[in-house]
Amino acid sequence: MNDAAVLQIARTALEVATLVAGPVLAVALLVGLVVALAQTLTQIQEATLSFVPKLAAIALVLLFTGHWMLQELTTMTTQLYSQIPHLVQTL
């Protein structure tokens, strides 16, 4: 296995991780921003107030996109396993 193969595997893993984590992180950021704005406007500074809406929003995102996320991870893992004989031959 040469350096190019290792870099390609690492690049693919980072791309898939970013793609899979993106929707969850984006929703958590958006909900956190909205709750923080609401807390600022109402002057309610309760730490647990931002936790529950984020948790509910993340659960909904995982409910709707979880199958797609699992499919992306499975596809990458299957492709990586199928490359093992080729990678071992280049040793």
TrEMBL record:
Q: Which residue spans traverse the membrane?
A: 20-39, 51-70
| Similarity-based family | Belongs to the FliQ/MopD/SpaQ family.
Function as written in the Swiss-Prot or TrEMBL entry: Role in flagellar biosynthesis.
Where does it sit, as one GO cellular component term?
Answer: plasma membrane
List UniProt keywords, sorted A-Z: Bacterial flagellum, Cell membrane, Cell projection, Cilium, Flagellum, Membrane, Transmembrane, Transmembrane helix
| Protein name as catalogued | Flagellar biosynthetic protein FliQ
Which Pfam family would be a valid example here? Bac_export_3
Q: Which GO terms describe its biological process?
A: bacterial-type flagellum assembly; protein secretion
Q: How does it sit in the membrane?
A: Multi-pass membrane protein
Chief location bin: membrane
The record's section on InterPro entries has:
Bac_export_3 (IPR002191), FliQ (IPR006305)
Q: Which NCBIfam families match?
A: fliQ (TIGR01402)
Q: Does the keyword Transmembrane apply?
A: yes
Top-rank lineage group of the source organism: Bacteria
Q: Where in the cell is it found?
A: Cell membrane; Bacterial flagellum basal body
